[in-house]
Amino acid sequence: MKWVGEGDAEKHEPNENNVCSLTLGPGLMLDGSTVASRFLHVELELNVHLRRLSFSEPVHYIYNPLEYAWEPHRCFVETYCRGGQSILFLGMNPGPFGMAQTGVPFGEVNYVRDWLKITGEVGHPPSEHPKRLIKGLACIQSEVSGSRFWGFFRKLCGEPDVFFRHFFVHNLCPLMFMGTTGKNLTPPELVIGEREALLALCDMALCQAVAALGVTMVIGVGRVAEQRARRALTAAGMEVRVEGIMHPSPRNPLANKGWEAVAKAKLEELGVLSLLTM
């Protein structure tokens, strides 16, 4: 049986040279006066609930970058989570060389560091698989999904501010699961009872996050994220449009044949492509 947060994750105190980590002052002074602070509060509350969960086979390792990579995650949210954004891209959960390293959804290191200009120290989860060590923003391995995702929007938008004028990005679940070999396990691969307990908490947090952001559309990146968002928001009685685009994962043969063209066509069909080039 593996508990979330088992052991003590290595964390770093805010760095006085890190502008992002000091935006709201030292510590975790989230007073709810901004969209970003309300959004971060939702995530911190979710962390508290997730620590009470436990997982059995095939799970042997659990990483929560909202714990050990809080500084760059907070930098991302404080920098780019703004009032007036109307559309949320929703991923499922972190990948080993993306958000698990950087704390940023679809967070391929080069795009996070060099295009989004995110900074912050990254610690370590309580227990690390030797094939999935956390290197933070110094990680040299690239995540295909994140590179495709942010690379596509860099081509369309040019600058991050153009993208974040109308859009924000979030993951339904902040946890990454691995088996004994270091193989990534997605939430659908978990034991059904444990999966449902996890996703019930994540669904509730999603509804709170959507309310905090004030978005009117959620675009699930991949079928599972789309389905979970539709189910959660409908059950909560929230009048939010839910749509979906293909996931850029290399596990998806169709994505390997030209994900950018498919994504662009879908965003045009949804009537939001023009918002990325304004």
From TrEMBL:
It is found in: Nucleus. Gene3D superfamilies: Uracil-DNA glycosylase-like domain. One of its GO terms (cellular component) is nucleus. One of its GO terms (biological process) is base-excision repair. InterPro entries: SMUG1 (IPR039134), Uracil-DNA_glycosylase-like_sf (IPR036895). One of its GO terms (molecular function) is oxidized pyrimidine nucleobase lesion DNA N-glycosylase activity. Keywords: DNA damage, DNA repair, DNA-binding, Hydrolase, Nucleus. It comes from the Eukaryota. The keyword Aminoacyl-tRNA synthetase does not apply. Belongs to the uracil-DNA glycosylase (UDG) superfamily. SMUG1 family. This is Single-strand-selective monofunctional uracil-DNA glycosylase 1. The lineage of its organism: Eukaryota, Metazoa, Chordata, Craniata, Vertebrata. The gene is SMUG1.
